[in-house]
Specification:
With 230 residues, this protein is an alpha+beta fold. It folds into two domains: 76 residues, Beta Barrel (OB fold (Dihydrolipoamide Acetyltransferase, E2P)), CATH 2.40.50; 139 residues, de novo design (two linked rop proteins). It contains six helices and eight strands; from the N terminus they run βββββαααβββααα. The strands form two sheets. Strands 1-2-3-5-4 form a five-stranded mixed β-barrel. A three-stranded antiparallel β-sheet has the order 7-6-8. A hairpin with a 4-residue loop joins strand 6 and strand 7. Helix 1 packs antiparallel against helix 2, helix 2 runs antiparallel to helix 3 and helix 3 runs parallel beside helix 6. The radius of gyration is 20 Å and the shape is elongated. The two termini are 39 Å apart. 34% of the residues are buried.
């Protein structure tokens, strides 16, 4: 029986039968995998500790003839659950897992695993859920081929210092407008988020307020361009 060993993060768990679970996982090398964890809901199960949400786990699984593999062993590598008592961060983490689970039905790149691993680690240590969420949306759009244009305006013109802009969702970028809802500082923050983690972005002045103000538009941008639900 062929057994695959990989690092994995739980996306979704569904109770099955009297004591089993079907677990949807994002792995480092094997993409999105669904496994049957037999007897995992029993109190003495050796599999339970290695398929907890918001953790980096090492799993061994045997591919089956159908879509669902069999989990043969699992162990916890890194626990990132210090944030679960903070409601806005727990809600964000759950939304990220749900959106990625649906997004990966039609898309896959090994970059998704690293992005999710970084997201969970950052949620665990960065206080601003708004900055983390902005970073997440910008980067999942980027790796799925729907990058927000922060190099120039949609008409090719350079960005102007202290000007205001509108985000034109169907054209993938910004255009200057006297009564625009987006500040030039927000566009700089979005651009910086493509190459910096939230732990660095939070050090920028007003990053939390800027993130909070642009988030509704970024969510609309994601829903328009990406296949996942958010």
């Amino acid at each position: 029986m062929k057994v695959i060993v990989d690092k994995a993060i739980v996306l979704r768990r569904t109770n099955y039968g009297e004591a089993d679970r079907i677990v949807s996982l994002l792995t480092a090398k094997s993409g999105k995998v669904s496994v049957l964890a037999r007897g995992v809901r029993k109190s003495k199960s050796k599999l339970a500790s290695g398929i907890e949400p918001f953790c980096i786990n090492e799993i061994c699984f045997a591919p089956g003839r159908g879509e669902i593999a069999t989990l043969t062993s699992s162990r916890l590598l890194t626990n990132y659950t210090n944030f679960i008592s903070t409601f806005d961060k727990l809600e964000l983490a759950n939304n990220i897992l749900k959106s990625l689970d649906s997004h990966l039905e039609d898309n896959y790149s090994e970059n998704y695993y690293q992005l999710l691993a970084t997201a969970i680690e950052q949620i665990n240590c960065v206080n601003s859920a708004s900055v983390i969420e902005l970073w997440w949306l910008v980067n999942i759009l980027k790796i799925s081929g729907n990058d927000i244009n922060t190099n120039s305006q949609i008409d090719g013109q350079k960005f102007q210092e202290n000007a205001r802009y509108n985000l034109v969702i169907d054209r993938g970028g910004f255009i200057v407008h006297q009564q625009g809802s987006v500040q030039s500082e927000t566009i700089k923050l979005i651009k910086l988020s493509k190459n910096n983690t939230p732990s660095k972005l939070i050090l920028l002045m007003n990053s939390d307020d800027l993130s909070r103000n642009i988030l509704p538009q970024l969510k609309s941008f994601y829903r328009f361009h990406a296949s996942g639900k958010y």
